[in-house]
Amino acid sequence: MTIKEQQDTIIEEFSFFTDWTEKYEYIIQLGKDLPLIDEQYKKEENLIKGCQSKVWLHAEHRDGKIFFTADSDAIITKGLVSMVVRVLSGQSPAAIADAEIYFVDAIGLKSHLSLTRSNGLLSMLKQMKMYGVALKARGI
Amino acid sequence: MTNSEPITDSVLDIEKIRKDFPILQTKVYGKPLIYLDNAATTQKPRTVLQSLETYYTQYNSNVHRGVHFLSQQATEAYEEARKKIAAYINARFDHEIIFTKGTTNGINLVASSFGKKFLKAGDEVLISAMEHHSNIVPWQLICEEKGATLKVIPINEQGELKMDAFDELLNSKVKIVAVTYVSNSLGTVNPVFEMIQKAHALNIPVLIDGAQAIQHIPIDIQQLDADFFAFSGHKIYGPTGVGVLYGKEKWLNEMPPYEGGGDMIKNVTFAKTTYNELPFKFEAGTPDISGGIALGAAIDYVQQIGAATIQQAEEEVVAYAFDRLSAISSLRFIGDAKHRSGAISFLVGNIHPFDLGEILDKQSIAVRTGHHCTQPLMDFFHIPGTVRASFAFYNTKAEVDELVKGIEKAKRMLE
């Protein structure tokens, strides 16, 4: 699936929820379910410091694609992180570099990308795109 | 107090008071707003909002210089506000009230001006382990510049200052003590009367960070005998952008100006400038005129209800909140001081404060989460942050009940 298709799928999944409780329970479940990152990568240099919650991001480059794993100490952030990973992981550097992430806003969680939260999710997205930009620039 | 007692808010007619605050009638996510973030900023009564509007619609004009009618009217209103504030905290002189941008600005002013004049290499500045970053960083900056040392009064597990350590740290090398009256993170009320007395016994002046005290505790500055007392207008139902630094006349006269510009001068030539007298020496440039006047209106409002009545009402709601929150399994308080005011900080099980804050927000309950600009304090407790519910006299016991329900729901979702 392309980045756009992944995002549209998530938006469709969320359209079935009738109230905020269901939506958040789903995100929390995503956060609980996924062992997102190998413990060895939860180290200082992979830590994206946010004001309120920590996010770790690890990237690997294989077969012309970038694969991400990530984690957070806050469960709602972790659920959102898992969705961002689902959208961007396994895509080409060029696609990641040029990606427009609109699903977070569309599912009603845009506050997570706002400066008032400064919770690491926005910084993680920037970091992911930087990997894309860097590898794209090297013509990979 | 037990849960079975009827929920009454006895000291004040809170429903009537809540009508004075337009924002308390608003809804968030379709539900009535429950505003428990008063330590961050308080809401504004209609009279404060009206004074802002009246100023801009009827006599907006610059102060202290114009000869025209409006300028005189604005000057009078602005200086009247200064008088009200001086009277409210019982300052000896009106000119001991310096208008600032807020507490941070006031502390920076003292750290810089006092530090320039009185600090030298080898001297010490004494603060506490529970200070807001605003009462840490300005002192770090001036200590670095002067080669002085910043010393820290430690706290115990309950979040109270270790007074025996304070006694030991007080010595002739200390040139100023700067402590908070009430901790913004823990709600601890520090024994500032005792601390000021002890410091004065060694001729050491004391700055009190009053940001979390001014709205909760009646202040008689002469009785307290603090040398400096800084607070923000927006914490006591006034607008943002304006604050007050009280300073004893003798210190303010000895200190050099903080900023240069208009209003703070008596005579300027390129060779030499002489400075204006107090308080204008420390008020360079056009001030926040409307903010100062509206802060005066806020003081009027508080006085009309009575600072002591407000304190009593708040103590009641905070005690009720403490009691109700204690009943939540796996909830633990961060900071458990005997004397406390305003804020209650807590964590629930292993739930990240940020997650809890977000689920409370969805239930239209506004709390603060995070380190509350007191990172060294969070390091002391080995936690990333807390959830903080902070109260004002317009908060009701019914709102506390909603908070408890909200936390229970968040627990079901997050644990």
Overall average residue pLDDT of chain B: 95
CATH topology of the largest domain in chain B: Aspartate Aminotransferase, domain 2
Number of E-type strands of chain A: 3
The main pleated sheet of chain A reads as: 3 strands, antiparallel
User: Any idea what the radius of gyration of chain B is?
Assistant: 22 Å
How many structural domains are formed by the residues of chain A?
Answer: 1
Radius of gyration of chain A: 14 Å
The beta-strand count of chain B equals 17
**Share of helical residues of chain B:** 25-40%
CATH classification, class level of the largest domain in chain B: Alpha Beta
* Sheet with most strands: strand arrangement of chain A: 1-2-3
SSE pattern of chain A, N- to C-terminal:
HHEEEHHHH
Percent strand of chain A: 5-15%
Q: What is the domain tally of chain B?
A: 2
Q: Give the helix tally of chain A.
A: 6
CATH architecture of chain A: Alpha-Beta Complex
Brief summary of the model shown:
The complex is a heterodimer of chains A (140) and B (415). Chain A is 49% helix and 14% strand.
Question: Could you explain how this protein is built, in words?
Answer:
The complex is a heterodimer of chains A (140) and B (415). Chain A has helices at residues 3-15, 20-33, 75-88, 93-98, 103-106, 121-137, and strands spanning 47-49, 54-62, 65-72. Chain A has six helices and three strands, in the order H-H-E-E-E-H-H-H-H. With 140 residues, chain A is of the alpha+beta class. Helices cover 49% and strands 14% of the residues of chain A. Chain A has one domain: Sufe protein. Chain: A (Alpha-Beta Complex). The two termini of chain A are 20 Å apart. A three-stranded antiparallel sheet of chain A has the order 1-2-3. Chain B has two domains: 14-44 and 307-414, Aspartate Aminotransferase, domain 1, CATH 3.90.1150; 49-304, 3-Layer(aba) Sandwich (Aspartate Aminotransferase, domain 2). Chain B has helices spanning 14-18, 46-59, 69-88, 103-118, 137-146, 163-169, 192-201, 221-224, 249-254, 289-305, 307-326, 353-362, 375-381, 397-414, and strands at 27-28, 31-32, 34-35, 97-100, 124-128, 149-153, 174-180, 206-209, 228-232, 243-247, 265-268, 273-275, 331-333, 343-348, 365-366, 368-370, 386-390. In chain B, a hairpin with a 2-residue loop joins strand 1 (27-28) and strand 2. In chain B, helix 2 (46-59) runs antiparallel to helix 10, helix 4 (103-118) packs parallel to helix 5 (137-146) and helix 12 (353-362) crosses helix 14. The longest helix of chain B has 20 residues, at 69-88. The radius of gyration of chain B is 22 Å and the shape is globular. Mean pLDDT of chain B is 95; it is low at 1-7. The A-B interface holds A 20-21, 24-25, 28, 51-54, 73-77, 119 and B 29, 351-355, 358-359, 362, 369-370, 384-385, 413-414.
